[in-house]
Amino acid sequence: MTQQSEPAPSTAAAPGPAGVPTPPPPAPPLAAPRPLAERRVWPRTFHDRLTAPLPGLKATARFAREGAVRPGREGLADIPRLPVEPGPLPRAGAGDIAVTWAGHASWIVRIGGLTVLTDPVWSRRILGTPARITPVGVPWDALPPVDAVVISHNHYDHLDAPTLRRLPRDTPVFVPAGLGRWFHRRRFTVVTELDWWEAAELNGVRFDCVPAHHWSKRTLTDTCRSLWGGWVLTAPDGRRVYFAGDTGYGHWFTRIGRRHPGIDLALLPIGAYDPRWWLSDVHCDPEEAVRAAQDLGARRMAPMHWGTFVLSAEPVLEPLTRVRAAWEKAGLPREDLWDLPVGASRVLTARPPRRPAATTAPRHA
């Protein structure tokens, strides 16, 4: 049985006595972690989780007539200016959180003493797109032992079979519901499938599967046969990293932020958005990504899903310039926008232990 998705929250608080708005109801408690590698039965389709209808014949015909999947010559001219600064992975203690952008939606996240890969794509080319326009930020041989992998959905630019074949088959993998069979066929042995709002734990780090505004498809016959989603990784000390995967803008960000307050870092997509009429339901543009970070209540944002593969028609450098402008317009601290070059890293050091409150001896009369 699958867990039912929640209805979209109201955007306005209900009026209370004397017209005073009442606060929204408290978020439901987090689910208890499920066992790792639990075998489960899922429905045949997840079409009911779509937050927008998939394009029909009319939209497909329009796209074939006037759509564009690549920028023009001027839009590609800035490829040499794309920021690429590969460097060694930073040192990170067990209590630190470190993120390194390998490109697109692939991150090396070190949290709670674990090394976690998100949507790892180390291939030079993926099906149906030109070769990557920037190199992989971290050579595969430079990675530390990989403790876990999280996958957002099954599109080829997020689920890359040649990359995953490089991993030991006992690597723990966390995937949305229905995607486990893809890994079992490839002899992965520790595959944990989760529905939205479900979680599992590995060595004290909690992995929560959360909703996304997207869809899934890998072949001509498997549209929405597996779920799609993002992930909230929570360290033993309570600090959180949100990996959005691939998503459009919508109500789920507010709901995720309420369930997981105090997100320290949100990894959010900012690219593959043009033409807007075709892609707005499934891909955030830079301004929407900044709004999503605010909806989440995230303390910091790191942009991703741009500057790696040419998937749509916007100029290759435009996502970066627009996200910086949107961040500044929102009045957010510049140091909290982690607009990393490909291959670069940032570290959140461990929280210092709390000092016991000082006490004073009572005075005697």
UniProtKB/TrEMBL annotation:
<dbReference type="InterPro" id="IPR036866">
    <property type="entry name" value="RibonucZ/Hydroxyglut_hydro"/>
</dbReference>
<dbReference type="InterPro" id="IPR001279">
    <property type="entry name" value="Metallo-B-lactamas"/>
</dbReference>
<dbReference type="Pfam" id="PF12706">
    <property type="entry name" value="Lactamase_B_2"/>
</dbReference>
<feature type="compositionally biased region" description="Pro residues">
    <location>
        <begin position="18"/>
        <end position="32"/>
    </location>
</feature>
<protein>
    <submittedName>
        <fullName>L-ascorbate metabolism protein UlaG (Beta-lactamase superfamily)</fullName>
    </submittedName>
</protein>
<feature type="compositionally biased region" description="Low complexity">
    <location>
        <begin position="1"/>
        <end position="17"/>
    </location>
</feature>
<feature type="region of interest" description="Disordered">
    <location>
        <begin position="1"/>
        <end position="38"/>
    </location>
</feature>
<feature type="domain" description="Metallo-beta-lactamase">
    <location>
        <begin position="116"/>
        <end position="306"/>
    </location>
</feature>
